[in-house]
Amino acid sequence: MQIGPFELPNRLFVAPMAGVTDRPFRQLCRRLGAGYAVSEMVTSRKDLWHTLKTSRRADHTGEPGPIAVQIAGTDAAMMAEAARYNIERGAQIIDINMGCPAKKVCKVFAGSALMRDEPLALAIVDAVVAACAPDGVPVTLKMRTGWCDSERNAVRLARAAESAGVSLLTVHGRTREQGYKGAAEYDTIAAVKAAVGIPVVANGDIDSPAKALQVLQHTGADALMIGRAAQGRPWIFREIGHFLATGQMLPAPATHEVKRWLVDHLHEHYSLYGEHLGVRTARKHIGWAVRALPGGEAFRAAMNTLESADAQVRAVATFFDALSQTHLVLPLAAANDEPLAQFA
Ligand SMILES: Cc1cc2nc3c(=O)[nH]c(=O)nc-3n(C[C@H](O)[C@H](O)[C@H](O)COP(=O)(O)O)c2cc1C
To answer: Minimal CA–CA distance to 1: which of 189, 129, 156, 170?
Structure first.
């Protein structure tokens, strides 16, 4: 699997999720079998680049390459400038967000809202490709199947994007109007794959090795992108990779391994955010990790009251040590059998 000059170790991608796929989470997913991870969206608004939030998002220290940064915005010149800004800070691939329905983004007509205005969408693609060309930086595009049910224009946009020089397309199998409701459909992704020569990545509701195989077969896609199912279960990448390679399911991970992954993740999380913010923002990751485990809900409620990194790590370690007394491997219920969460 190749993006421009970059050869990827496999075809399993971590979906960009604002507020989730920060550097520590991306690194964890890469260690557990993901071949590629796109960073959280960086705004094209220059006035926000100096903020701590944006500079944390643009921090790729120690991350395995290629470094891919997603940008979002509505103005072609500003998007080109955002691409340059990120290249100067180490980005090796620039991803344009036309797939995110968040109000904060769509209100200003960015993200998936751009799919409704094809001339503007293509002006942005042209400007970003031109800005990246001098450094040979590939541009990728993430989109949905269309704006709404009657306007599924993914195939048209995909063809135009390919002609404009985009190197890879990711398609989430829902329209903008759907948000995260209903089920992802894969027919439009298959149609996009059939219409273009560049690699196509299928995304949406992939939550198990069997589903991954089904989506690959249905769409003919070159790669798969996984988002919500990796929350609290980052080892899903190696489970899918193993299944695709061998047709066999990997056994559930050992409880002590999951403890180690989570504790290591917490330390990396605190070192990026500092203790005060880090303890608070780590709660969602811990919550996802324990939600389907015996006693997980009660533990989550109690853990949410802890204020120090030390206490949080100790509580997590104690919870998993106790669980390993009764379960040497993670109980099967821990495989996310809850419906995938809505995007708040
Ligand atoms: C919390 C959250 C944040 C997201 N942020 C972004 C984002 O910044 N950029 C983007 O292109 N998509 C974003 N998405 C969409 C995901 O990348 C992905 O397309 C979507 O969740 C469908 O994949 P999944 O079913 O595997 O989760 C976000 C999704 C979630 C749940």
So the answer is: 170
Residues with a catalytic annotation lie at 100
Class of residue 190 by CB neighbours under 10 A (exposed 0-12, middle 13-18, buried 19+): buried
Q: How far is the CA of 77 from the centre of ligand 1 (A)?
A: 25
Closest residue to atom 28 of ligand 1, CA basis: 17
**69 Cβ below 6 A of ligand 1:** no
What is the number of the ligand 1 atom nearest to the C-alpha of 97? Answer: 11
| pTM value surpassing 0.90 | yes
List the chain domain ranges.
Answer: 2-246, 255-326
Q: Which phi and psi (to 5°) does residue 157 adopt?
A: -65, -40
**CATH architecture for residues 2-246:** Alpha-Beta Barrel (3.20)
Judge contact between 293 and 330, C-beta under 8 A.
yes
Q: How far is the CA of 69 from the centre of ligand 1 (A)?
A: 14
pLDDT tens digits for 113-123?
788 889 999 99
pLDDT digits (tens, 9 = 90+) for 316-338: 999 999 999 999 999 965 444 44
pLDDT band at 344 (very low <50, low <70, confident <90, very high): very low
